[in-house]
Amino acid sequence: MVRAVLADLDDTLFDHRGATRDALLALAAAEPAFTQWTLAEFDARHRVVLETLHLDVLAGRRSIDAARRERFTQLLAQAGVGPADALIAALSDRYRHAYQSAWRPIRGALALAQAVSHAGVRFIIVTNNLVAEQARKLEHCGLTPLVDALVTSEGVGVAKPGAEIFAEALRQAGAGIGAADVVMFGDAWATDIAGATAAGIRAVWFNPEGAASPDPRVEQVVSLEPLDAVLRALGVSA
Question: Which residues form the domain of 117?
C-alpha cells in the first residue's frame, strides 16, 4: 500500500508551460523582433536558454534575476537585436509580471492533492528549483495546506535525478516509510522517472503530450482527470 506520494511541481501540478507561453505572448506584443518567430518557435528557443541558465541558478552561480536578464540578452541576440540594458531590464520585468499573473494549477491537480490527503497518504513535493519560488507557487495554487513537505534542490543541495534528493523526500515522508512504500509522480523522464527508479522508487509518468515511452513497463497517465484513474495508477485508495 502506498504511504506517500512524491510529486514533481512544475508541469506536473503547476502549469509552468502554460504560464510561460502566456508570458512569451506578452513579450512578443512588446518587442517586434520576437514576432519573426511563431509562438511555438519562440517557446522552443526560450526553453533551451531557460533550461541551460536554470542549471546556473540551481548551482548558485547566478541569481534568478541575473539569469532572467541573461536569458533575454540571448534571445534578443537570436532575434538580431543588440544588447541594450534598458530594453533587457524592461523585458525581464514584463516577462516576470506576465508569468506570475498566469500562475495556475494544472487542471485536476487540486482535486488530486485533496484526494491523496484525504486518503491519509503523505504528499511530498520534490522539485528542482528554489524554495521561495516553489512555495509561492504552491500557495497561489491553493496546494499549500495539502502538502506535507516541500523538498527542493536548493534546500537539499542536489537536484533530481540525484539520489540524495529522493533520500531526503523519504526522510520527510516519515519514520518507517521506505522506497517500497512510496510512488514518484512527474512529467520529466530523466529527472523524475529515471531518478526515482534508480533510487528504488516506483514511478508513474505524467505524459500529457503522449510522447513515446523510454520504458513501457513504467505506468503513465496523460491527464489528471478522471481522478479515479490517476489514483489507481498511483496506488492510492480513494
Answer: 4-15+105-234
DSSP single-letter state for residue 34:
G
- Residues 62, 124, single domain; the answer is no
**Residues paired with residue 151 on neighbouring β-strands, in sequence order:** 126
**Beta-carbon contacts of residue 203 (< 8 Å; ≥ 6 apart):** 183, 184, 185, 186, 192, 193, 196, 197, 218
The pLDDT value recorded for residue 23 is 97
Cβ atoms of 189 and 11 closer than 8 Å:
no
Q: Find, among 81, 90, 136, 98, the residue nearest to 20 by Cα.
A: 98
| The three three-digit cell numbers of residue 35, written as one number | 514576432
For residue 43, the model assigns a pLDDT of 97
Q: Which pTM does this prediction carry?
A: 0.95
How far is Cα 8 from Cα 206, in angstroms, rounded to an integer? 10
Whether cis (ω within 30° of 0) applies to the bond prior to 83 is: no
User: pLDDT below 70 — which residues of the chain?
Assistant: none
What cell numbers appear for 87 in the block?
A: 530594453
Q: What is the CATH number of the domain that holds 163?
A: 3.40.50.1000
Looking at residue 238, what is its pLDDT? 76
List of residues 6+ apart from 205 with CB closer than 8 A:
186, 187, 189, 192, 193, 213, 218, 219, 220, 221
